[in-house]
Write a structure and sequence with these properties.
By secondary structure, the protein is an alpha/beta fold. The chain is 48% helix and 15% strand. The protein has three domains: 4-147, Rossmann fold; 150-263 and 292-311, no CATH class; 317-387, RNA polymerase sigma factor, region 2, helix turn helix motif (Rna Polymerase Sigma Factor, Chain: A, Orthogonal Bundle), CATH 1.10.1740. Strands 4-3-2-1-5-6-7 form a seven-stranded parallel β-sheet, with helices on both faces. A four-stranded mixed β-sheet has the order 9-8-10-11, covered by helices on one side. The structure holds NADPH dihydro-nicotinamide-adenine-dinucleotide phosphate. NADPH dihydro-nicotinamide-adenine-dinucleotide phosphate (NDP) binds at residues 10-16, 37-40, 59, 99-101, 104, 122-125, 149, 201, 203-204, 206-207, 265.
Length: 387
């Protein structure tokens, strides 16, 4: 059997390390070609040595000498810069894990899509911001985009063999995050440590905060629209605190298919790694008798306005999703640095959406310009808040 060649963009993060964990358990099936990171040079070099990668790319140029030193004698080339990242994404590897966090991952994801690779997409912000530009590019190049997000991966699995016209709606489940039962007054005082303490999933800091505001579900709503081609009104959100059902597809005949599993990202990642086959994972098996019952409730848009804002941005179209995402990235970073309060995240996003009159993007360069302009204006808004 020929081994599948692999590139992991964001190899040192939560999704990246889970991907490496699976690959290292099945060395007969996978061959790591390229790994990338932003600044974690020690973890990057260590992973590159363990997997015999041929190229390791570090985003922070100042760390290139240290990366080269750590890789000396390993046969793995150390590199930095835009061209190296494009080479990582669109080079030798046939399967690319897109696991950089934020819009920073957009250009390499597009490079992989344009090169016709199989792209396992965790980096939802790239699809949220580029939307149709990315799905059109995939159609042109023949690239396959496989959803890694557990909800979208669940829907993808529930759609096997289906015709889209037979689907009546998608139901994205949401854990509700760590503040599901908290009042707005409680949330106002929440610290970054409390916001990243997700009840079910272990994830990177940014997505953990997004789960606490429910912006993550909002980004996923937009992601689902682009991946599966359904309009906003046919994509519902259902809070399901146990995170056992990862999402559902309702068909026109009244059948609803669900995908279930323990909350371990290695399950959806393995699905994309082995696709269209399957591979074993060490993930805990579901013990439904022990779990006993599953709960569901509707999301509360008053307490969690970020979800409302995301739906409004999707329905407004144009550049709104780019503005939503950029404002959220800046606000979440400021919250994590204790510069603003938890509730101010959604407030800043709402203000940015109200102020922006950006035209719809015609290219990835336009997306990047709108993203940068939004970051600047949210920076000014925050300055005004703290003055
Ligand atoms: P992490 O913060 O844990 O990891 C992010 C990775 O991207 C790291 O390897 C980091 O390198 C790298 N990185 C960060 N910024 C840059 C940059 N500017 N340029 C290049 N590389 C960069 O994030 P997660 O793994 O949690 O999430 C990754 C993506 O997957 C996000 O889009 C998230 O929404 C999505 N996702 C994550 C899930 C999860 O369970 N974690 C579930 C579903 C989706 P370094 O370590 O050096 O900083």
């Amino acid at each position: 059997m020929t081994r599948r060649t692999i590139a992991i963009l964001g190899a040192t993060g939560s999704v990246g390390t889970s991907t490496l964990d699976l690959i290292e358990r099945a060395p007969d099936r996978f061959e790591v070609v390229t790994l990338t990171a932003a600044r974690n040079v020690a973890a990057l070099a260590d992973a590159a040595r363990r997997t015999n990668a041929r190229l390791a790319v570090i985003d922070d140029e100042a760390l290139l000498p240290e990366l080269s030193e750590r890789l000396a004698g390993s046969g793995c080339r150390a590199a930095t810069g835009r061209e190296a990242l494009d080479e990582a994404a669109a080079g030798e590897a046939e399967w690319v894990m897109a696991a950089i966090v934020g819009c920073a991952g957009l250009e390499p994801v597009m490079a992989a899509v344009e090169a016709g690779r199989t792209v396992a997409l965790a980096n939802k912000e790239a699809l949220v911001t580029a939307g149709a530009l990315m799905t059109d590019a995939a159609r042109r190049s023949g690239a396959t985009i496989l959803p890694v997000d557990s909800e979208h991966n669940a829907i993808f699995q529930c759609l096997v063999g289906a015709r889209l016209e037979d689907v009546s709606r998608l139901i994205l489940t949401a854990s509700g995050g760590p503040f599901r039962t908290r009042s707005r007054a409680d949330m106002a005082a929440m610290t970054p440590a409390q916001a990243v303490a997700h009840p079910n999933w272990s994830m990177g800091a940014k997505i953990s905060v997004d789960s606490a505001t429910l912006m993550n579900k909002g980004l996923e709503l937009i992601e689902a629209h682009h991946l599966f081609g359904l309009p906003s009104e046919r994509i519902d959100i259902l809070v399901h605190p146990q995170s056992v059902i990862h999402s559902m597809v309702e068909y026109v005949d009244g059948s609803t298919l669900a995908q279930l599993g323990s909350p371990d990202m290695r399950i959806p990642i393995a699905h994309t790694l082995a696709w269209p086959q399957r591979m074993a994972t060490p993930a805990e098996r579901l013990d439904l008798a022990r779990i006993g019952s599953l709960d569901f409730e509707l999301p509360d848009l008053e307490r969690f306005p970020a979800l409302r804002l995301a739906r409004e941005a999707l329905e407004a179209g144009g550049a709104k999703a780019i503005v939503l995402n950029a404002a959220n990235e800046v606000a979440v970073a400021a919250f994590l640095a204790s510069r603003i309060g938890f509730l101010e995240i959604a407030e800043l996003v709402e203000q940015a959406l109200a102020q922006s009159d950006a035209s719809p993007p015609q290219s990835v360069a336009d997306v990047i310009d709108i993203d940068a302009a939004t970051r600047d204006s949210v920076g000014d808004m925050m300055q005004a808040l703290t003055d």
